[in-house]
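Supplementary Methods S3. Complex input for the FE2/S2 (inorganic) cluster-bound model.
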Amino acid sequence: MTNFNPWVTPLNQKLIETTGNGWQIEYEFFDCQSDILACLTYTLFQENWQHIGLGHIEQGSVLELEFQEAPKKCVLYDGYLTVIAQEWHFHLCIEETIGGPNGETPPELRKHRLISKAAFYRRINPEGEPRSWGIQFWNGAGEKGMTIFFPNPYVEEENLLPEGKANWDKLKLYNELREIYVLGQKPIPFTKNPFKCPYIAVCTSGRCYPSRKWQPTFAALKSAVEKADLDVEVRTTGCLQVCKLGPVVFYSEDKTWYSLVQPKVAEQIVQEHLVEGKKVISHVYPPGNGELETVSSQD
Ligand code: FES
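Predicted complex, serialized as structure tokens:
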């Protein structure tokens, strides 16, 4: 979405799914275009990580995870939101995956990966009482994907509370988000997509630069960006889809990959590309005219 709209238009679509044991799941669908998903997932994983769980639910198999501390990283790259907790991480496709410098993602695969449906849900027991609350995502093939779990008012520290003692305050977050995303009664509390700030990133994975000495490149980028007083975040990242000729660097604003970025080159990229708007052609990846094919990494 180019023009950010803080109001979600209600879809007014509900679905009741029966689970075969007298229980039902009531889904309320909401518009899941990319800016909306970005705002919602930022709110969940960056601002409310301590209040939610996440996982997958299928008949015969349930995975539930909780954050013990704030996620170490929560970033969007090539359509995938990556959230890194202390002991585990996940990827969730909230935008089209275009692909990397070595090839574009085929259109069918882009469609398959991307969230195509999203709904707030309540699981309702045979007596008609809602007993659990969450958000469900589906991918482009209609397959159930990640489930978000909200605090359960009937449960305290894994114990069921006595009948009539439910703590309804625990549904505050669910109710607030439902008002914004399902009912469209309140605006999204953002003025732009929170994952879309300009950034320059250096890969810290090992395939592109086996020595993993990315730190000097990172430090050079950081000090050059600070010196130039640019509003650009300098960050580390996982694989940037180049996987050779490291250190590898990516600039988000015009999707440029650089290879063999030693500290001097990092300074040059900041000055010439970020400040003056001219790419450092000799290090752009893939290399033009094969110049870089003859240059070997310093590893
Ligand atoms: S491992 Fe660095 S780009 Fe893939």
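The chain has two domains: 14-181, 199-298. Residues 199-298 form a domain with the Glutaredoxin fold (CATH 3.40.30.10).
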